[in-house]
Amino acid sequence: MRPARYSFLWLVLLVGISPGACIGQSLEDAAFEFAGLWGGEVADLEGSLSPSGVRLQWEAHQVGSLDPRHAMASIREYLGSREGAGVRVTRVQEVGGEPPKGYAEIRWKSRIQGTSDLVVRTVFVAFVSEDGMWRVSELRVLPLSRS
Fold first, then answer.
1. Which of 36, 95, 100, 132 fits 9 for a cystine, CB–CB 3.0-4.6 Å?
2. How confident is the model at residue 144, as a pLDDT?
3. In 10 A of CB 36, how many CB atoms?
């Protein structure tokens, strides 16, 4: 992540700007903002979810497509026993289409509460542009490696 991205992300987190209102400049901005929320203020993710629904996959478990409220409940349940130890955007790509679509890959380090083993996973986030804002339409957490 570039230093300017760190500064912007910290500004968002420290000042308390509503993340749902922020997600939507460029796809890259939306990806970095999502990563910051995933690594910290998960409760604020709901504003970034597509009202049309979000397809979820937790490792090998396919959850399916849920409305934003139920998707947030599933996200909270999945993350409930995990402690974040680091997050980094590794790739952002617009893929076009109508409405415009894109995706981001995020490297996420975490550990199960009460353990010291770090688990590194790839978080795949698909975005769709709705009303001029990039919204999350798919979220997949895939195993990557143990470190």
1. 36
2. 62
3. 23
Q: Are 22 and 46 within 8 A, CB to CB?
A: no
pTM tops 0.85: no
Strand segments (E) across the chain:
54-58, 61-66, 82-96, 101-112, 119-130, 133-146
- Which phi and psi (to 5°) does residue 69 adopt? -65, -45
Helix (H) or strand (E) holding 74: helix 68-79
Distance from C-alpha of 132 to C-alpha of 74, rounded to nearest angstrom: 26
Q: Which domains does the chain have, with CATH numbers?
A: 3-146 (3.10.450.50)
The one-character DSSP state at 92 is: E
Q: Quick one: which of 87, 112, 92, 114 has its CA closest to 103?
A: 92
- Provide the residue type at 45 as one letter: L
Residues recorded for the chain: 147
Task: Calculate mean pLDDT across residues 65-81.
Answer: 95
